[in-house]
Structures are given as structure tokens and as C-alpha cells.
Amino acid sequence: MVVFSILAFGADILLFFEGADIFVKGGERLAMRFGLSTTTIGLTVIAFGISLPELFVSTEGVLLGDFDIAFDNIVGSNIANIGLILGLCAVVQPDVFRSLLTRGI
After folding, report:
1. Rounded Cα gap, residues 100 and 104, in angstroms
2. pLDDT of residue 105
3. What is the 3-state secondary structure (H, E, C) of the chain?
């Protein structure tokens, strides 16, 4: 049973990375087709695609009359995004991040 779980987890990781690669390459092709920059596509189409699961969860919560699910999904998503960005900043440039924290900014 444990071996199956480990294999399933490994397969999920591989499929996740392959799907992300296909998604990004598709966005790049879309940008070339319409003559847009890849940054524009990244900030619109790709960003919308990444937020789509949250939209579905919030919509389902509202349709089922459970507004707490929609609200908690939005708040939790924003907290996670802010935390991930702050964590990435702390890893990439720890000295700058540390000085910002000590100054109270």
C-alpha cells in the first residue's frame, strides 16, 4: 500500500510538471500567434488559468449556499500568495529582506 502511494505521488509530480510545461508553451504560442509579448500573455491568460481552481471552488461554494467556503478560499489564497512571495524574497535576497524588516517597512 505504501509503495503504491509513493509511486502515485511520483507520477503526480511528473504529470504536474509536464502539464505546467505544456501550459506555458501554449501561452508562448498564443503570444506569437497574436503578436503579443510573452509578458502580456503571462500576466493575463496564464494568471487566469492559475486562478481558475479558486474560481471554481468559490463558485461552487456560492451555488451551494455556503458563502464561507467562497470567502475563506479568497482570503486563504491571498494569504498563501503573499506568504510565498515574501518567502521567495527572503530566500533570494536575505540581506535586503532583513534590512526591510528591521526598519519596519
Report:
1. 6
2. 59
3. CHHHHHHHHHHHHHHHHHHHHHHHHHHHHHHHHHCCCHHHHHHHHHHHHHHHHHHHHHHHHHHCCCHHHHHHHHHHHHHHHHHHHHHHHHHHCHHHHHHHHHHCC
Dihedral sign of CA atoms 28, 31, 37, 40 in order: negative
Band of residue 104 on the pLDDT scale cut at 50, 70, 90: low
Tens-place pLDDT, residues 27-45: 888 888 988 888 888 778 7
Q: Could you write out the three-class secondary structure of 72-96?
A: HHHHHHHHHHHHHHHHHHHHHCHHH
- Report the pLDDT averaged over residues 10-36: 88
Cell numbers that stand for 100 in this block: 526591510
Give the domain extent around 48.
Answer: 2-103
Q: How many domains does the chain have?
A: 1
Residues in the chain: 105
